Every structure is written in C-alpha cells, then in structure tokens.
From TrEMBL:
One of its GO terms (molecular function) is hydrolase activity. Keywords: Hydrolase, Membrane, Transmembrane, Transmembrane helix. The keyword Transmembrane applies. This is Membrane-bound metal-dependent hydrolase. The chain crosses the membrane at residues 77-96, 102-128, 149-168. It comes from the Bacteria. Pfam families: YdjM. PANTHER family: INNER MEMBRANE PROTEIN YBCI-RELATED.
Amino acid sequence: MTAEGHLLFSVATLVLAQKLEITPVLAQGDWFHMIPAVLLGSLLPDLDHPGSILGRLFRIISLPLSKLCGHRGFTHSLLAFCGLAILWETQVAPYITISADFFHALLLGYLSHLLADMLTPSGVPFLWPLKMRFALPILAKKNSKKGERFISVIILVGALFLPPHLTFSLPTQINHWLQMYHDKRTPF
C-alpha cells in the first residue's frame, strides 16, 4: 500500500473508531490531537523501508532496521505494536506530557497500517518472528491507488452512516489498560 493509501485509510479508521466509540478517549477526543497522531502512527511501520517518508527522514534508524528485519518484517507485527505502546509509556510519556487521545490515535494509526497492508497479497507477519503471513488480498495490484482510495471512502461513508451511539468496546483488559493511561494523563 502507498503512503497516501495509509494516510487515507488511517483517517477513515479514526472516524470509524470515533463513531463506534472503541475507547472512551477516542469517542471524546480532540480532532486536533487525533488527526496528526493517527497520520504519524500510520507511517511508523514503514520505518523499516529506507524509501518511505519516515525512512528518508530517519535514515539512521531506517537503514539498520531494514537490514535486520527487511520491509514488512518486525515493524509490521503485533510484537512491534505492543513494543511501541510499552516504549511510548516507559520512555516518552515520563518526559513529555502527551494527551491520551493522541496516544490512542497513534496506536490506532499504527494498527490501521497493519490492517491496510493485510489487504495486499503479501500480507503482514502479525506473529513475527513466525514467518506466517496474514492476508485478505482485496487489493490485488501493487500500489493500486484507486483501490486504496475506494476502500478508504467505503470505510468513511460507512462510518458516517452508522447510527448514533452504536458502540463496539475493546476487550475489558485492553480498555482497562487504556483507561489507566488516560487517568494518569488527565490533570486533576
């Protein structure tokens, strides 16, 4: 999937997540926090590709990462997703005050990237280091911008036509962890 496709898909996913009230923080979040965060999160997994937007900006990270894991390796796994959440919580959050809606949207953007790449024939290694790849190859052509745009528009239109207050909650443990993060970040 192209960078444009990931950006569009992430915003459509954010609108859907907000509409479905996936987390209370996303449901009530500030769009000025969430849009930049979901866009950034949607580009992060491609840090393993030196030709990607972030790969060109952060070559010092991208080149070694590419040599170690290759493109669509570690950074396209659930292990990397969890690692990002832990790294953010332990190494970034103690030093920089980041709103909970930014954090939730960043994670959502990252996850949207993995889901979008799953729509391509090569799929993603969710269970890396296992070599098994997960794919639902709706986008048969490589770099099918029209297909990427179409899927994003379908998600966005679908989200806009959902009935109000239709909710989809995350499993209790994930919601509890996210709520603890939110409570810790909310000033009293």
